Amino acid sequence: MTPTVPSRKKASLVSQKGLAAVEMALALVVLAPLLLLLVEGAKVLGEYSSILAASREAARMVLRENGDTSGAASLAQSLTEGLDGPSPEVEVTVDESAKTVTVKVDYEYQPFATSHTEGESVFESLDMFSGWDGKLHASTTMPLP
Predict the structure, then answer these.
(1) How far is CA 127 from CA 11, 114, 130, 132, 141, in A?
(2) Which residues contact 18 (CB under 8 A, 6 or more apart)?
(3) SS3 of 4, please?
(4) Neighbours of 106 (CB within 10 A)
(5) Which of 24, 74, 76, 111 gives 54 a disulfide partner, CB atoms 3.0 to 4.6 angstroms apart?
């Protein structure tokens, strides 16, 4: 029978028991904010797409009605009912000299990651959004027949 000598391999495995947990904690410090930024960016793009589609449909309605703007604002607001927060402001203008119709939709974006009370802007405390007023603006201009 030969005596066994403790190897260095077993000693090194024992000293690395919590290494995976430490690495995961360090990785989450970087990955969690990136994930939140990705979710917030996707939400902004989705809501902008919704208000842009609403402005296009309202402009198309004015075209179909030969310049009658009576129901365009209500159509745009009904198409954006599923958005968070207050309903968007809709402005419909017809330029007779240029023979165009312009539909502007302004929506106050409600962020996913932070919450705020009524009247308080969440973007004042975020340095990366300091130049943005927190509103999404979509505008569509189409020629009248």
Answers:
(1) 48, 14, 5, 10, 33
(2) none
(3) coil
(4) 15
(5) 76
